[in-house]
Design a protein that fits this description.
BirA Bifunctional Protein, domain 2; alpha+beta; nine-stranded mixed sheet; four-stranded mixed sheet; 3 domains
């Protein structure tokens, strides 16, 4: 085998990477910190499998990620399986099948890796760790607010202090379209115009259906309902929305009020027409960002858990933390000092030094100079004549 062959062994597919020291340890600590905070609020951890049958993985909300799912044939059952691109649908499956007789609301947490067929310009990684919670079996503003507040709590526990939350209502436009009885072609043009934040395109999309201009004014008003949550909600209240859309806007206002009462210093923004990436959400949704950057740290919101196409579903809300982004936004914790223990040091001696805050690195053979060997192994201290000596 040539040196060039060895170099090729280290190549990985695009979007995949080895997580090396100290980043792998940082990620593990961050996951543990988040899961601990979830448990403190009554969320119990579940561990779904990495792969499962395609019809289960891609049913219900999982259908939105069908194009991002790796598929393979199970040689045992001869059925198609998928490698999970997201863990939310798996936790929902557990809730409506194995845990269907447990009392509601059901609080579940999870952590694990997912893999997708392709990344995107903002997130080129195809494999990454997800950590999150699902609150299943209840549809209330209090539950929506709990998801937001718990995601913020977990991020702060990990070490991301300066946060902002962007609130969304991805079903609002559809409710207005239905209330105004607009046809599918007009609705599609409107959706495109709203996604581009283009007021002129809104006017053009409704040109043949809006003789008095009221519908155009309404959708332009929805587009302008963006910015700080209080200001955006005030704009929404001025609009004459159809009944179903007005109820959704009122629900969003209730959630914002609950979050503000619990954490008055948490910045909240609102984009009433944002939809991209939220296709399977059925109500109040949100994304969490760091004030130091605009990379998305968490995303969540209301959805139907289970398989609505089979008549098996429950109201749910939850969120996912994206650990690669979270670690990039958090400050690394101070590493524990590493103490080199020379050959001949009793195994039992390690415990006392670990109790004092050291990680210990034991020699596995004689070394002529403990200090030099300690430095070679990236230790910060060496045990010399029974004392910890800094290097």
């Amino acid at each position: 085998m040539t040196a060039n062959d060895n170099n090729h062994r280290g190549l990985l597919p695009a979007g995949l990477a080895d997580l090396l020291p100290p980043d792998a340890a940082r990620e593990a600590r961050a996951i543990d910190a988040a899961i601990e905070r979830f448990a403190a609020f009554g969320y119990e951890r579940v561990k779904p499998p990495l792969v499962e049958f395609e019809e289960s993985l891609l049913g219900g909300p999982g259908a939105a990620l069908a194009s991002q799912t790796f598929r393979l044939m199970d040689p045992v059952s001869q059925r198609m399986m998928g490698v999970r691109p997201d863990m939310t649908v798996q936790v929902a499956r557990i809730a409506v099948t194995r845990l269907k007789h447990e009392p509601r609301p059901l609080r579940l947490s999870y952590g694990g890796n997912v893999i997708r067929v392709r990344g995107n310009a903002l997130k080129p990684e195809r494999q990454f760790a997800q950590v999150g919670t699902e609150l299943i079996g209840v549809d209330s503003a209090e539950a929506d607010a709990e998801a937001v507040l718990l995601s913020v709590d977990a991020l702060r526990a990990i070490g991301v202090a300066a946060l902002t939350v962007d609130m969304n209502l991805p079903t609002l436009v559809a409710a207005v379209v239905a209330g105004l009885e607009l046809d599918l072609e007009v609705a599609a043009r409107l959706r495109h115009a709203l996604d581009r934040k283009d007021e002129a395109a809104i006017t053009k999309a409704l040109a043949e259906k809006d003789g008095d201009g009221k519908a155009t004014d309404l959708f332009v008003g929805l587009l302008r309902a963006a910015g700080p949550a209080a200001t955006a909600l005030a704009q929404l209240r001025k609009l004459k929305l159809p009944a179903a859309a007005a109820a959704e806007a009122a629900r969003l206002a209730d959630v914002v009020a609950l979050i503000g009462a619990a954490d008055e210093d948490l910045p909240l923004t609102l984009d009433a027409v944002d939809y991209r990436g939220l296709e399977y959400q059925t109500g109040v949704s949100f994304a969490v960002f760091s004030l130091a950057g605009r990379q998305e740290l968490a995303r969540g919101g209301r959805y139907s858990a289970g398989y609505p196409e089979d008549g098996v579903s429950e109201p749910a809300t939850g969120f996912t933390l994206y650990m690669d982004a979270v670690l990039a936004a958090s400050h690394p914790a101070t590493a524990r000092p590493r103490l080199f223990l020379p050959a001949g040091t009793p195994w039992s001696a390690a415990g006392s030094w670990q109790a004092r805050g050291y990680n210990v690195v034991r020699a596995v053979g004689p070394t002529p100079d403990a200090r030099l060997e300690a430095k070679r192994l990236a230790c910060t201290h060496a045990l010399v004549d029974g004392d910890s000596v800094p290097l």
